[in-house]
Amino acid sequence: MSDHIFTGSGVAIVTPMNNDGTINFNEYGRMIDFQINNGTDAIITCGTTGESATLSRDEHCRVIEYTVKKVAKRVPVIAGAGSNDTLFAKELSVEAEKLGADAILSVTPYYNKTSQSGLIRHYNLIADSVNIPIILYNVPSRTGCNIKPETYAELAKHPNIKATKEANGDTAALVRTMALCGENLDVYSGEDSQAFTITAMGGLGVISVFANICPRESHEIVQKALAGDFRGSFALQKHYIELMNALFSDVNPIPVKAAMNLLGFNCGPCRMPLAPMSEQGFNALRNCLIKYGILK
User: Fold this and answer.
1) Catalytic residue among 70, 90, 165, 224
2) pTM above the 0.85 mark?
3) Could you give the dihedral angle defined by the CA atoms of residues 8, 82, 87 and 129, in that order, rounded to the nearest 10 degrees?
């Protein structure tokens, strides 16, 4: 790998389930090949979109191991390994490294949350325990915990803390983070709707839900911005914004799994407590896919 974990569009890939709730590894392998064959620049497994919150530790490790073997170094594999329990996050990160992951995605502690000094202690302990790069994941809408720019600056001093997946929606704070961290911290958009914006600001791309169904289009949005074609990138962002929003019309990953099932992938249901979309919501999603010519 280069000094950067990846540039472009990394897919926050779903975990397909059989009807009995077990993981459908055969379909998962087909999805990985579909992603790589259509331009995805990295596979991010066992994240929010992959329903990591309802995977057992054994399942979590099996999914990481399968992903690494199936990808076979074609693109980087980034393994979700976060927890609100620091010691468990450390153990899972160590295991992800042993299983061959190229990097770790580590969400901020949730529910119990923590202070900014607690975040520094939490992440430094994890970073001290592995020899692969870490992408921090800041998504306060889900965790109730926000990484402040000054905290980023302190965390970026650790040689293993290389990047952040930023999804706090605060562009002003992100500008300050970039100013404080400089080249010590790469930034990826954690929201599809900000893929152009954050890449144009100097980010390296997006960790994308949209890419599950439109990997090449997500890749193009970022690549155009990276190449300085801001007009072209923004035109694509505007074109696909309605579809991106439709994929978040219910709790992620409910809509994207529904969309993938409509498109011929056998992703199955989400695990409880996530429930199927309402009939009205499902029909609106289907009509949106038809409008974009993705579904006939």
Assistant:
1) 165
2) yes
3) -10
